[in-house]
Amino acid sequence: MWRLPAREAAKNADAQGSTQAMLAFFRFLAAVFLLTALIAAVYDGTRTLAANHLVTTSLLEHWTVLAPKLLDTVQSTVKRATHPLVWDLGLARLLQMPAALFFCVIGLAFAYAGRRRRRINVFAN
Question: In angstroms, rounded to a whole number, what is the distance separating the alpha carbons of residues 90 and 121?
Answer without folding.
Answer: 45
